[in-house]
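In response to a reviewer's request, we include the raw inputs and outputs for one of the modeled complexes. The two entities were modeled together in a single run.
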Amino acid sequence: MIVDAAVDGHVYRVEVTGGQGRYTVAVDGRRLEVDWREAGGPFASLLIEGRSHRVGLEPRPGGFRVLVGSDELAVDLLETARVDAGAARLGPAGPARLLAPMPGRIVRVLAEPGQEVAAGQGLVVMEAMKMENELRSPRAGRLAEVRAREGQTVETGALLVVVE
Amino acid sequence: MTSIDKILVANRGEIAVRVIRACREMEIASVAVFSEADRAARHVRLADEALPVGPAPAVDSYLRIDRVIEAARASGAEAIHPGYGFLAENAAFARSCEEAGLVFIGPRSQTIALMGEKTSARRLAVEAGLPVVPGTLEPLADDAAIRREAERIGFPLMLKAAAGGGGKGLRLVTGAGDLASAAARARGEARSAFGDDRVYIERALSRPRHVEIQVVADHHGNAVHLFERECSIQRRHQKVVEESPSPLVTPALRSRMGALAIDLVRKAGYVNAGTLEFLVDETRAPYFLEMNTRLQVEHPVTELVTGVDLVKLQIRIAQGEALPFRQEDLSQRGHAIECRVYAEDPDAGFLPSPGRILALRVPGGPGIRDDSGVEEGDEVPSYYDPLVSKLVAWGEDRPAAIARLRRAVREYQVLGIKTTLPFFERVLRHPDFVAGAIDTSFVERLGRDPHAAAERPRRVAVVAAAIRAYQQRRAVKSAAGAAPAPSVWRHEGRIEAQGGRG
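The model returned the following structure tokens for the whole complex.
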């Protein structure tokens, strides 16, 4: 299996072969011998070329949230056949969607549909866990849609605003 | 002397667990209260008895004085420990306890009222001879008064809720242009947190340090201080790392601040445990900020360096016992540092990250203490403060404590919610922190530090994720015979995850 793995803005081409806890993983052409043991629930113990790593894996849309020790990394996996299509959809031309990053209540909506906004401009104020948090525009553009309503309670991932 | 046989713990989370543990060690029965969101919470599981007090929102449950008092009556508890937050500094609650014949484990209700109104506390401190930060001594109730006083005091300044605490209703205002919106936000937060939107103004000091003094006083006129805690590492004006002793405080400053604290304790007729917060400026001059009339979140660092169990001491004082030591019996031994593990995403501006804890690995070993309100499988509800645990390390000196805490942070693993643990890795290895050169702007400066994110184990993460995906695909393939496996990756989700970062 060959995938492109993106983490922190770096992309690695990764090829995995093997099975039953013994894998050969080539990362950007460098071959690593990996010994994998399940360590209870989502945890695993990895010996990569003899170095011991405690990892935990939680599925997330597009890949995994990976704990290495207590360091936490979001890894996106893209099958190589689809990389080009994926990259095109991630390009700067497409609309950007502001989603609720946590469950909470919409306290204020600071912008209107059709309005031009700057990158980083505050669009919505959400209250969660007794704190007010200002959610900012992911980029400059025009507001195609404003779904958030003041007083509304929303779940994580709820679409609040579309910037195009 | 009143012997207490049963205590109702009017709180939730790690502090309720802390108090329940003290009760058990003293062979006192404990009664938990819980909202509908907390029926299966750890404090309920650990208590001897537990009673419901209402729906999930705190205003309908943990903040309902009538229901908490009724739960104490129904369970036959003689005393109530309020923890911190919720009703801990609510004078009306303490008074209701007194009127119901319940022992409130804390100061008298009139002392709470006096100190809880921050401007009256400032006036009392001035009378007791304590230096205070220049600003208004009376609360301000309208925007015109705020504007007038702001112009008089000058910028930058701090707007603070008169009924305040815990960073709620608190705003730094750097110039006149920001005053109106900052005042609206501060008053809004103060209104929803305390039901009182009056504010007061203090001049903002340049790169101040936040140092506080722990005090305890009994009903027999004895009062001592248990030295200082350094609390300068803050985000959004809330503490995230605390330690004792403070690397800034000299023996002379320590005894001066301790003496000032005792002066105010005596002036106020204070009883039980409390904390005086000070700002210390670049010339090491201390200014009294406010007094917290309750147990402090960060009390474990004091416990580890003094050897005093503050919660048990609170209970003994409430039973009418005299302090078991004098000032000269107390000393600081070694060094302790605490990290507050919050259910927050440190890479997204510390946004709350409630949810279910899918998996949890907690560190142990020499000198490590984890005061946690959760276990694996527990839900962190979005209704309450996002503090899930306090990880505390003790060492013979500050470098040993830092090394131990770094070791423990690396052992600590949480899946299902995001936590501030990765942030502590960055704090604990930062040269300024290691040198003790910390002030209240440290977190902000750390956020701009480009090499803070440099050493992340990206290759290990990539290897782990790729192998897991490979295993899943092979499992799907063997389950479906020779049929091609469906893709486990959806590009749409990735776009949304990035858009949500803001």
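As requested, we also summarize the result in words. Residues 83-90 of chain A form the longest helix (8 residues). Chain A touches chain B through 78 residues (CB under 8 Å).
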